[in-house]
Structure formats: C-alpha cells, structure tokens
Amino acid sequence: MTKNIIDINAICHTFADGYIGLKNISVSISKGEFIILAGKNGSGKTTFLRHLNGLLLPDSGVIFVKGLDVSKHLVQTRKTVGMVFQDADTQIVGDTVFDEVAFGLENLKVKRAEINKKVTLILEDLNLFHLKDRSPSTLSGGEKRKLAIAGILVMDPEVIVFDEPFSNLDYPGTIQVLSTIIDLNRSGHTIIIATHDVETVICEATRIIMMEDGQIKKDGTPDCIVKHLESFGVRQPCSSKFGMGLQPWLS
Ligand SMILES: Nc1ncnc2c1ncn2[C@@H]1O[C@H](COP(=O)(O)OP(=O)(O)OP(=O)(O)O)[C@@H](O)[C@H]1O
Ligand SMILES: [Mg+2]
Known about the structure:
Layout: E1 4-14, E2 20-30, E3 34-38, H1 45-52, E4 60-65, E5 68-69, H2 74-80, E6 81-84, H3 97-107, H4 112-125, H5 141-153, E7 159-163, H6 171-186, E8 190-194, H7 198-201, E9 207-212, E10 215-220, H8 222-225, H9 238-241
Parallel strand pairs: 3-8, 3-9, 6-7, 7-8
Antiparallel strand pairs: 1-2, 1-4, 4-5, 9-10
Helix pairs in contact: 3-4, 3-5
The structure holds adenosine-5'-triphosphate and magnesium ion.
C-alpha cells in the first residue's frame, strides 16, 4: 500500500489541435504536502492541475489518487481532490452566494440544518457572510474568487488544488485566503497551488515544482529551488534575493 495520496506515472497530453500540453510527467505527492507549482505563462500548470481530478485525461500514462486510477474512478477522485479554478466565473452555478456554497452539499442530500451550519462557517471564515443574499454575478472579481474557494472548502476534500488563488485579491483578501489555506494544510489537507506569486506562499510550502514547456524541470524543497526561480521566469522573493533567507509573508 502506497503512502502517496497521488501517484502520476509518465502522463502525456496532446490537445485536439495537436499541441502537446504535457510531456511525460511522473511525480508522487504525499498526504499533507504543501506544493507550489510555478512556471511561466503557458508552461502547462493549469493543464497539469486539470489532470489531478480528471477534468483532462492523459493520452498515455496513468494517475492514481488514493490508489485508484483516475480515468476509471472520476466520482471518487473528485471527492478526494477539490479544484479552485483560475477563472472563478466558470465555477459559479447558484442564484445567491449562500446557495452557491450550499450547492455541493445539497447534491449529496446533506440535512438542511447541517448545510446551514457549514455554509455559514465557511462564509464567515472568508468574510463573505454579509454578501450571502447577493447574486454571484454581481460580485467583484476578488469576491467571486473567494466564493469559488468557499464552494470547494465546504465539501472538505482531502486534497485542494488552487490555480492562481491570489489573482484579483486585495491585501485583506489575500490574507484571508492565505490564512485559510495555511489552516487547511495544518489540519492535514494536502495543498497544491499554481501561482506566479511565489513570495506569498513560499514559507508555507514543503516543495516547489517548476514547469516549463509541459515538463517538470525542477522538484525540491523551497530552499533548494528558490535560487532557480528566475531562470524559469518566476520572480524570486525579495528577502532571498538580498541574502536574508525566506521570510513569511504573513507576520
Ligand atoms: N484546449 C487547448 N487546446 C490547445 N492548446 C491548449 C489548450 N489549453 C491550453 N493549451 C496550451 O497549452 C499550453 C499550457 O497552457 P496552460 O493553461 O496549462 O498554461 P499555464 O502554465 O497554466 O499558464 P498561465 O500561467 O498563463 O496560467 C499553452 O501554450 C496553451 O496555449
Ligand atoms: Mg494557468
């Protein structure tokens, strides 16, 4: 029995127009890790993340989530791996903010009192409760992003994948989302974040994976990878640039 929550073995993905999005990726992820996925625009981060919950399937190779082949166990995979998309609008389905967050639990036929309790807690955590009766379509970009995060967190998946979670967020919004992500990791969730904003999360990460041209080019601890960031087009945190070591973004 493997201790890895995700095992990826030699996956390749070619899009319908013939563009090769992923080239022979193999990687294993243990329970409780906090992984940053970094790389330039177009390096393949979103394509890779979409394979983790079966939104895209590989043409060759295999992905196991908790030992199950993703291509044959999509429902089970999506219970284990929750994904917050890069484009928050694509995820919104409810008429109100409250309904939006309740949607997944309603589908699972969870009791109303339980739904109300869980949704209220998540909305309060992300400072969205005052917006609970608003239509999601009227929210700002940052509010929509937090709403998309709330809709995934309420389902309590073991692995949570965030694709650019800090884009569109102001300073307090970034703090709320970052604190939520840190708490989730401390309570045992496995976190995988694709971000250009490495400085914000690097102190929390156990590992950084660098992508380029649909391939994994580096994979190691933040201390080992930090000096290579700029050669892959990713900004190095100021503190390490000036020889001060890695400093937490949240003080
Ligand atoms: N449906 C598609 N058909 C053809 N090519 C695609 C498709 N989706 C993505 N690509 C291409 O695959 C490459 C990787 O795209 P991807 O979205 O994974 O990059 P990314 O690393 O997430 O970039 P960003 O930092 O801009 O979010 C890009 O060159 C993109 O144009
Ligand atoms: Mg992307």
